């Protein structure tokens, strides 16, 4: 299965961790979380009250960011969850080359290929031709 390619694997390196622990009750909607070894974006969080066995539980519903599949997990609210280190870089589109690559404003990125989906490709080219903002389509 191709979605197996994005699992976190432990390797000997400089010691930097791909995740950090955070208590389950502090995780919120739209944040990233590692569920069952997959990096996911949380779309729903619900917390149950303390029950017969002592712990309140957090129920997470999330979407895998690599394959779009829904993932769920239930964790005691006082236990730790793995949270991935996430960095986001926004680029401004300044040019589209003849061979279908884009150019970024400050540091030229000539290895970023345009999408192959015809509908999305048409939207990007049309908005670029009209000199509209391309941060969000």
TrEMBL record:
Residues 1-12 have a biased composition (Basic and acidic residues). Keywords: Hypusine, Protein biosynthesis. InterPro entries: IF5A-like (IPR001884), IF5A-like_N (IPR048670), IF5A_C (IPR020189), NA-bd_OB-fold (IPR012340), Rib_uL2_dom2 (IPR014722), Trans_elong_IF5A_hypusine_site (IPR019769), Translation_prot_SH3-like_sf (IPR008991). Residues 85-136 form the Translation initiation factor 5A C-terminal domain. eIF-5A seems to be the only eukaryotic protein to have a hypusine residue which is a post-translational modification of a lysine by the addition of a butylamino group. GO terms for biological process: positive regulation of translational elongation; positive regulation of translational termination. One of its GO terms (molecular function) is ribosome binding. Coiled coil: none annotated. Belongs to the eIF-5A family. Translation factor that promotes translation elongation and termination, particularly upon ribosome stalling at specific amino acid sequence contexts. Binds between the exit (E) and peptidyl (P) site of the ribosome and promotes rescue of stalled ribosome: specifically required for efficient translation of polyproline-containing peptides as well as other motifs that stall the ribosome. Acts as ribosome quality control (RQC) cofactor by joining the RQC complex to facilitate peptidyl transfer during CAT tailing step. This is Eukaryotic translation initiation factor 5A. It comes from Kalanchoe fedtschenkoi (Lavender scallops).
């Amino acid at each position: 299965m191709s979605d197996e390619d994005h699992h976190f694997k432990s390797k000997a390196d400089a010691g930097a961790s791909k995740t950090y622990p955070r208590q389950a009750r502090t995780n919120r909607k739209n944040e990233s979380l590692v569920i069952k070894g997959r990096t996911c974006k949380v779309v729903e969080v619900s917390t149950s009250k303390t029950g017969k066995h002592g712990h309140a539980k957090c129920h997470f519903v999330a979407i895998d960011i690599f394959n779009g599949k829904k993932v769920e997990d239930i964790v005691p609210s006082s236990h730790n969850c793995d949270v991935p280190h996430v960095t986001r870089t926004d680029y401004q589109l300044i040019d589209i080359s003849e061979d279908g690559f884009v150019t970024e404003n400050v540091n030229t990125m000539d290895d970023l290929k345009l999408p192959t989906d015809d509908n999305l490709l048409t939207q990007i080219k049309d908005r670029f031709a009209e000199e509209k903002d391309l941060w969000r389509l």
